Amino acid sequence: MIKKFFKVLFALAILSGVAQAQYSAPSMHRAYNVTLFNGTSPASASTVAQTAVTGLDTYAYCWIYSKIQGGTGGTLDVYLQTSPDAGTTWVDVGHYTQLAAAAPLAGSVVAFSKWGPTVSTAPTSTATTVNTVSGTPVVAAGTFLPGVLGNALRVVFVAGTGTTAGTAQVITAFCSTS
Length: 178
Known about the structure:
By secondary structure, the protein is mainly beta. It has one helix at residues 2-16, and strands at 31-40, 46-49, 53-54, 61-68, 76-83, 91-95, 106-113, 143-144, 152-159, 168-176.
């Protein structure tokens, strides 16, 4: 009789939800905000690669937010490069429209993905030009390759002849695992 009582009690507990196991999977989503560059562009004609942001292996997408403007006296080209091997090899994934001397501040957003092309508000291209020398910028101005994202990102500035002063530039990335 007591055995039957506990069987009924157990059945009622299961039906009422009291004895159900509670399980919630841990979140696998990770997000990462990082500054790719926040400073002044070159103050003289030169090509300057900035310090790379590495460790992007687990991130599927990166959205790059940029506020860039022209320097004093010469043109300014701003490139985004990625590395598939943590910085040994660098390839262009973007080249903003060339900025004339004293060009006003302009903002833009471009998205990069490890899984293929994504929608981007910046000009996009399916250009097949690749860097023949690692890190030497070659992609045409106004070109972005949004389906390419390695495990590192960096900014490269190319200040043109006549540049006498740099200007404030801010380029940040928001990277996500999903």
